[in-house]
Specification:
Residues 285-305, 387-396 have a biased composition (Basic and acidic residues). This protein is α+β, with helices and mostly antiparallel strands. The chain has three domains: 2-272, Vaccinia Virus protein VP39 (Rossmann fold); 397-499, no CATH class; 508-576, Roll (Archaeosine Trna-guanine Transglycosylase, Chain: A, domain 4), CATH 2.30.130.60. It binds S-adenosylmethionine.
């Protein structure tokens, strides 16, 4: 595969790695490593190991991570549909391990989609505390929502917002923040050959500009004493060591916490900060040179077009206008030189990056990652946030179970369909317009021990909002909490997310299927099942067999069914089915 890699990339890696380069290059001919992470919101490591037939080996840097063999195909297994694990590239599991999330904390995942690391954070929170997930890309947010539902995450809010807009509600709010930054993706080349083909040397500069902004924006939202992890899946020092050195230089209230170089992890290298400056300068010179060439080429092209009669508007040919506008757009994300790489970096900041970590594909069994752990000083020294501490009292703002209902006004046009945007524009804490009784009745009858806490209604959709959330007025909220279902015409329809957030023992009426039985597969394919009433498991005899049942595979919920007269009607959503 090495020969498919861009030459400019290889030349850069050679300069960076020196004697290590041959081993790095040779790693492209090694097989890929496949990983899954046990979802401890559903089951413990040992419960999963007892249940599964996959041949697994522990991933040394991730407590719940395992290598699997490609032929075991865990993406095609009923246990995947039960959310018992998440398929995740092994080195991508390191950043969240280093974020050191504890149950009860407030955590922000700023670039969360499609959800690998965020579901790992959710598992570490163990259902306690608050997880705010954000991503700027609307389509990727849809995948994120599906993944958190599959994993049974209950205490998360999903946003689709520009990070700088989050600073108003969330100034100095979070205990932990993850910035799994968009990057030039050089660590993905072995996994996705198309990435290697598409890669351009100037991606590094463009992504570095975004990363610089994301770090700056995130820093404002971390509480004094909090911890932030910055990670990428790329190798370029401009996006890694140099980015962190520059951040530390500009934010004296932060320090780099040393990551131990164990389990195959290597330390970041201070000399790569200077190398990055050199590479950035070369890249900028190259850009100017190719820009000049391009302008000259266009100039000649336009000249020849303009000489032809009837071509172009107002003397400018259409293609020239399009190219000009594309060039302007491209420039918009390249920062001016004073903001990129030309900041004077002190020796102290350079030395600090030796505390960061590299996961190299030639030194461990993973595709590659960079991780930096950044800690905010415990006192708000040199604090940038005008809102520091403003929301700390919100931690205890808890509504009584099933009593405090926040309704927002009418459903917006964009809201229809489960993954579309919700705008919390109007809030009323009095007299809900939608009668909540059908929801209360359903929960009391089917899952009487489950406390859903503070309810939020968007139109007819009901959510259980996590505690401690500040006012999100003006923020694009995709999910204000655990989606419970909808109330239409005095009837409650439970959501798939509700089923996935429950445990089998929560429900008084269940149908228990085994992964190896045909019925499990038929259910996951959306088929109606013939089923004698005795197969409906009821918590006691007073519970009728008729009605909604929580369908479980090997004891773990996969969705809803409705039992009536010897049949289990399938309520498994079309978009989730086994194909
Ligand atoms: C490396 S991916 C994140 C992967 C994710 N953490 C996971 O583990 O599944 C980077 C993400 O950043 C998002 N992104 C890019 N620019 C952003 C911005 N300015 N603010 C928030 N998210 C952004 C992209 O849409 C992309 O989903």
């Amino acid at each position: 595969m090495g020969r498919l890699l861009p030459e400019a990339f290889l030349a850069k890696m050679k300069r960076m790695l020196g004697d290590d380069y041959p081993a790095f290059y040779a790693s492209y001919d090694d097989p890929r490593w496949y990983g899954l992470r046990v979802n401890t919101l559903k089951c413990s490591n040992s419960e999963f190991l007892d249940l599964t037939d996959f041949r697994l080996e522990p991933i040394p840097w991730a407590r719940t991570g395992y290598y699997y063999r490609e032929e075991d195909r865990p993406g095609k297994h009923p246990h995947y549909h039960a959310g018992l694990y998440y398929i995740q590239e092994p080195s991508a599991m390191a950043p969240v391990e280093l974020l050191d999330v504890r149950p009860g904390e407030r955590v922000l995942d700023l670039c969360a989609a499609p959800g690998g690391k965020t579901t790992q954070i959710a598992a570490k929170l163990a259902g306690q505390g608050l997880l705010v997930m954000n991503d700027i890309h609307p389509d990727r947010v849809k995948a994120l929502v599906k993944n958190i539902e599959l994993c049974g995450v209950r205490n998360a809010v999903v946003l689709n917002e520009q990070p700088d807009k989050l600073q108003r509600p969330f100034g100095a709010f979070f205990d932990k923040i993850l910035i799994d930054a968009p990057c030039s993706g050089e660590g993905m080349f072995r996994k996705e050959e198309d990435m290697a083909k598409a890669w351009q040397p100037d991606w590094v500069t463009k992504y570095a500009a975004m990363q610089r902004e994301l770090l700056r924006q995130a820093a404002v939202m971390l509480r004094p004493g909090g911890r932030m992890v910055y990670s990428t899946c790329t190798f370029s020092p401009e996006e890694n060591e140099a980015m962190i050195a520059e951040f530390i230089e500009a934010h004296p209230q932060f320090s780099v916490r040393q990551i131990e170089a164990v389990n195959g992890l290597s330390s970041g290298r201070s000399e790569w900060v200077d190398l990055a400056a050199d590479l950035a300068a070369n890249e900028a010179a190259e850009r100017v040179r190719s820009g000049n060439d391009e302008r000259e080429r266009e100039h000649r092209l336009e000249g020849s077009r303009l000489r032809r009669p009837g071509n172009g508007r107002a003397g400018m040919p259409a293609s020239g206008m399009e190219k000009a506008s594309a060039a302007i757009k491209a420039q918009a994300i390249v920062p001016p030189p004073s903001e990129s790489g030309s900041v004077e970096i002190s020796d102290g900041a350079k030395r600090a990056v030796e505390g960061t970590a590299r996961l190299w594909p030639h030194l461990l069994r993973g595709e590659g990652h960079f991780v930096a752990v950044l800690e905010h000083a415990a006192t708000p020294a040199n604090d940038e946030s005008g809102d520091a501490g403003k929301h700390s009292e919100l931690r205890s703002e808890t509504g009584q179970a099933k009593t405090e209902v926040i309704q927002t006004g009418q459903e917006t046009r964009r809201q229809r369909g489960s993954e579309t945007a919700l705008r919390p524009s109007v809030k009323q804490r009095s007299q809900p317009a939608v009668d909540m009784q059908p929801l209360y009745r359903f929960m009391e009858e089917l899952a009487p021990t489950v406390q859903v806490g503070r309810l939020v209604l968007y139109g007819e959709h009901a959510y259980a909002a996590p505690d401690g959330l500040p006012d999100l007025h003006g923020i694009r909220v995709i999910r204000p909490g655990w989606y419970l279902g909808s109330i239409r015409k005095q009837r409650f329809e439970p959501s798939q997310a509700l089923a996935m957030g429950l445990h089998a023992d929560d429900a008084v009426r269940t149908v228990r299927l085994a992964a190896r039985d045909d019925d499990a597969l038929r259910y996951l394919k959306g088929e109606t099942l013939d089923m004698a009433g005795e197969r409906v498991v009821r918590s006691d005899e007073s519970v009728p067999a008729k009605g909604y049942c929580l369908v479980c595979v090997d004891g773990y919920p996969v969705g809803w069914g409705k039992w009536l007269d010897g049949m289990l009607k399938n309520e498994y959503p079309a978009g989730w089915r086994w194909i």
